[in-house]
Amino acid sequence: MSGLKTSMTEGERKTALEMVQAAGTDRHCVTFVLHEEDHTLGNSLRYMIMKNPEVEFCGYTTTHPSESKINLRIQTRGALPAVELFQRGLNELMNVCQHVLDTFEASVKDYKDQKASRNESAF
């Protein structure tokens, strides 16, 4: 059972992302292995990547319920490499998440301001 690690020593970093290409394939068809991730990122990222017209196929699977990793496969139409579309999908997803966060924080601030102004006018 060599090569199996159950714990990490201090200072040791686990690889968060791996690229896997089958023998004989080119840079337009790549599987990305994302460690410590699940359906939350997998489905959101798949959706963002599939919105790009250069993507022919994008799908993901979880390897096993007891493992926290997903395999995300991207196949492009040939104009752009899969890595570039993966990066674009991540950036677009981060932008959407930032927009949701900004909107939420602005709404919380508005609510608190309205609540404070109601309390001031009650006196």
Automatic annotation (TrEMBL):
InterPro entries: RBP11-like, RBP11-like_dimer, RNA_pol_Rpb11_13-16kDa_CS, RNAP_AC19, Rpo11-like. Gene3D superfamilies: RNA polymerase, RBP11-like subunit. GO terms for biological process: transcription by RNA polymerase III; transcription elongation by RNA polymerase I. One of its GO terms (molecular function) is protein dimerization activity. Keywords: DNA-directed RNA polymerase, Nucleus, Transcription. Belongs to the archaeal Rpo11/eukaryotic RPB11/RPC19 RNA polymerase subunit family. PANTHER family: DNA-DIRECTED RNA POLYMERASE I,II,III, DNA-DIRECTED RNA POLYMERASES I AND III SUBUNIT RPAC2. This is DNA-directed RNA polymerases I and III subunit RPAC2. It comes from Carlito syrichta.
